[in-house]
Amino acid sequence: MASWADEISAIIEKNIAGFGAETETASVGTVIAVQDGIARVYGLQDVRYLELVEFPRTGIMGLAFNLEEETVSCPILGDYTLIKEDDEVRTTGRVISVPVGDELIGRVVNSLGEPLDDRGPINTNKTRDIERVAPGVITRKSVDTPVQTGIKAIDSMIPIGRGQRELIIGDRQTGKSAIALDTIINQKGQNLICIYVAIGQKNSTVARTREILERHGAMEHTIIVAAGASDPAPLKYLAPYAGCAMGEEFMENGQDAMVIYDDLTKHAEAYRNISLIIRRPPGREAYPGDVFYLHSRLLERAARLNEDYGGGSLTALPIIETKANDISAYIPTKWRALCVLTLPSSVSWLPSRSSPPTLIKPPRHVSTVDNV
Fold first, then answer.
1. For 238-247, what is the mean pLDDT?
2. pLDDT (tens digit per residue) in 192-233
3. Are 251 and 339 in a shared domain?
4. The whole model's pTM is what?
């Protein structure tokens, strides 16, 4: 008969044999200052650019944005008033990404891919980094398939191709968003997934946009990414890249997608706010020196892939607001550098430097959609 000591020894040996503790390493820092949605953190030694960081006390996430010699400036992706000095900050090892896939179609989400509507959680396991390198020249092909807006004057004179980039620029209340919504509505039954990115708009405006699209049956092929006027600047900054990442998922799966950025003027202003707070040197109109790269790297991700890479496409329709038709201001001037031609009208469609040359014939007949 075994003694108690033998039984205890057997139990201990069994527990030791099955012991498989998993260890995780995380860099830990401390908040030394919080100002207007930006936390300055000391002690994050191994953090990467655009890596998500966590504030364990509140559960709020942040973004490693400005890597300095002693500190890291982290835009806070939530209510920054809950973050206090001396709070602990931990790295997560994950670069910021958003959920992607067909499950997002018909939904309204924020810049992080979290649902804003009343239809429950989004059941998808696929994610994609919001910052990616644009497709190379070898992977692209000529733009040869039209995107019909439903407005005869545009479709006949300025045809838009799938995979192209076209700028809508003009003063406020001149119909820029109406053109974009007309284009979304006209894609019903055209096998084109639309992503509408609303930047700095009131929540009531986003709700009205959703109601218009639902009334015309367009939400069946549309995703709305909303960063409201009351949201912090970091969420407004991330919104266009999040919408682009969602569209790239469809493009790389051989489907056609279109992203509308409404509007990138507010996006540049949000980036200016972040840059001034983290003390980056201001330039013309207080914008930082890399504001051109801010949008060029976004627009270059629009492409038409060749058949060897799936044959999908991502079309981009950015919107820029001017003041008193002043296209010589900094942001409109920057966009004129990104594009080729400026039309002398209050609302201008600017043909961009599309990937290869555009080879599109205007459609013979396009039904006019009621102006929303």
1. 96
2. 999 999 999 999 999 999 999 999 999 999 999 999 999 999
3. yes
4. 0.84
pLDDT at 367: 35
Residues 36 and 277 sit within 8 Å (Cβ to Cβ): yes
Residue 97's contacts (CB-CB under 8 Å, 6 or more residues apart) are 127, 128, 129, 130, 245
Domain of residue 204: give its range.
98-351
Contacts of 333 (CB under 8 A, 6+ apart): 327
User: Going by C-beta distance under 8 Å and a sequence separation of 6 or more, which residues neighbour residue 72?
Assistant: 29, 40, 41, 42, 44, 47, 53, 64, 65, 66
Two structure tokens written together for 265: 């003027």
Burial letters for 306-331: b for 16+ Cβ neighbours within 10 Å, e otherwise? eeebeebbbbbbbbbbbeeeebeeeb
Are residues 89 and 104 part of one domain?
Answer: no
Q: What single-letter DSSP state applies at residue 212?
A: H
Helix (H) or strand (E) holding 268: helix 264-277
Q: Is residue 136 part of a domain?
A: yes
The domain that holds 42 is classified in CATH as 2.40.30.20
Is residue 5 a part of any domain in this protein? no
**pLDDT per residue as tens digits for the range 133-162:** 999 999 999 998 999 999 998 988 888 899
